[in-house]
Amino acid sequence: MSRHLLRFNVNGHDHALVVESHERLLDVLRDRLGLKGTKEGCSTGDCGICAVIMDGRLVNSCLVLAIQARNKKITTIEAVGTAEDPHPLQREFIKWNAAQCGFCTPAMILASKNLLDNNPSPTDQEILEAIRGILCRCTGYYSFVRAVKAAAQEMRKSGIEDHP
């Protein structure tokens, strides 16, 4: 196996790590950087649970080799709001009961954030399209749609610009 120097930005912090050519971005985020909010589901890219934003695009981190993140900007759920000051999406997910077991919630919030970063007034269909690659076994997807629409409205009303 070959080793590579990986320089990348995760949640606003620059990192330089030596990675093996076979290491996945998911494993580097969870095991090397301690960012456990990115979950592992199927390991085949089918469930979307491991989604992160890489250079403004939602990707399944289980399918991305760590070295493919070289010089990229990665956003994980840890960069979206805090317990003291939650992001509007987090508040609305709770309000609309869109986060039940919580397993898919980080990916759903990141997919929704990525959508709102590019489209502050999405339609129901655009929201469904944005989250369609993330499987949820607990809820119907319409609680997510209602939560995203409410968050979008709150963000527009309060002038929040939350671009990458």
Topology:
Elements lengths: L2 E8 L2 E8 L4 H8 L18 E4 L2 E4 L12 E3 L12 H8 L9 H14 L5 H8 L10 H17 L6
Parallel strand pairs: 1-5
Antiparallel strand pairs: 1-2, 3-4, 3-5
Helix pairs in contact: 2-5, 3-4
Question: Can you give me a brief rundown of this structure?
Answer:
It contains five helices and five strands; from the N terminus they run E-E-H-E-E-E-H-H-H-H. The protein is globular, with a radius of gyration of 16 Å. The protein is of the alpha+beta class and 164 residues long.
Report what the structure shows.
The protein is an alpha+beta fold and 164 residues long. It has two domains: 3-79, Roll (Ubiquitin-like (UB roll)), CATH 3.10.20.30; 88-157, [2Fe-2S]-binding domain (DNA polymerase, domain 1, Orthogonal Bundle). Helix content is 34%, strand content 16%. It has five helices and five strands. The chain has helices at residues 25-32, 88-95, 105-118, 124-131, 142-158, and strands at residues 3-10, 13-20, 51-54, 57-60, 73-75. A five-stranded mixed β-sheet has the order 2-1-5-3-4, with helices on one face. A hairpin with a 2-residue loop joins β3 (51-54) and β4. The model has no long low-confidence stretch (mean pLDDT 94).
